[in-house]
Amino acid sequence: LAERPLVDWDLILVMEPLTIAGALIGAFLNKVLPETFLVVMLVVLLSFTAYNTLKKAFKMYAIESRHLREEMGLRGDGTKESELTRMAHNSEGDDEEEAEDSLLDNVGDEEDEGFEDEEEMDEELKQILHEERDPPMMNIMVLVTMFVVVLFINIMKGGGAFPSPLGIKCGSVSFWVANGLMLGWIVIISIFARMYLVRRFEVKEKVGYQYVDGDIKWDGRATIVYPVICCLAGFFAGMFGVGGGIVKGPLMLAMGVHPAVSSASSACMILFTSFTATTSFIVFGLLVPDYAIICFVIGLLATLVGQIGLFYLMAKYKRNSYIAFSIGGVVLLSAFLMTIQSMVSMAEKAHTHSGGICG
């Protein structure tokens, strides 16, 4: 990993706004769609996500095993290289380095015309690297501002079970205008985030910025494709009433993001996505308070224990694939338990019917 925080704030800046938009739209569908349909679709989504995540985890595990064998001087069949063979490999590597150095020495001072430009590029590159060592406060302030505005509008407009402080009636013109303002505000932030990251990408390309394994190049295409996919992740999170991380964690792994960065960034994004979806559930009267408190405490403690235990195992065995295995395992377990729950509900014929957006 590079010398920077594990939380990728550029990734969050471009992906979180549309994730929240998806969560808001999904919360509306959660209110109107039949429970049986939601459960079946959730099981299908979780099963598909678990399969892809575990497939990625096994591939990462195989790569890590090969690297560990190479560090220990082991061949693919498990036998150890002789000391003479290892010395020969090291000698070949030294010869290649000497050849490269001699080529560089022969260049001389033939091309001094662009020297000043190169110095300016070096300074700009150093500035970028220096900025990346600390969390970008501008990104954080933009995200927090977006979140506060969305939260304020969501509460002020009210819902079926939560009376609006401004007297806005659920289903009225003012109600839908407020929802439109929320989505419009999110789109404006998304456009700003895209312009900022594309401009930053162009500067990095100009100064010869070296990306590390797991970095995403936020070019014109990536700043459209990935946010749209994240919008779908937020949509499913809002529609099914699950944390966005259960979808976005596997999504980031599929994007090639480093497992540790994926885990930290998705955990940070959950704060915004889940809180937005929760406020929507509150105004629609879908939140069960006593369940919510118990689940919050259990989730907090389980996350703390899981993070400490997982980072201990990663440090001891030098395997980041454990993160992917844990994500895939949790998603698979969720799919299994949801299947059992739906079968129990069908056996008891305990189905609920929609009362509409304002019902």
Map the helices and strands.
Layout: H1 9-32, H2 35-71, H3 83-107, H4 115-131, H5 137-157, H6 173-207, H7 222-240, H8 245-254, H9 259-283, H10 289-317, H11 321-348
Provide the gyration radius in Å. Answer: 25 Å
Order of helices and strands: HHHHHHHHHHH
Structural class: mainly alpha
Please report the number of helical segments: 11
Number of strands: 0
Low-confidence stretches: 106-116
Mean pLDDT: 78
Largest sheet: none
**How far is the first residue's CA from the last residue's CA?**
51 Å
Helix content: over 70%
Shape assignment:
globular
Tell me the β content: under 5%
Give your account of this protein's structure.
The structure is a single chain. The chain has 359 residues and is mainly alpha-helical. 75% of the residues lie in helices and 0% in strands. It contains eleven helices and no strands. It has helices at residues 9-32, 35-71, 83-107, 115-131, 137-157, 173-207, 222-240, 245-254, 259-283, 289-317, 321-348. Helix 1 (9-32) packs parallel to helix 7, helix 2 (35-71) runs antiparallel to helix 11 and helix 8 (245-254) packs across helix 11. It is globular. The N and C termini lie far apart (51 Å). The relative contact order is 0.19. The model is unreliable at 106-116 (pLDDT under 50).
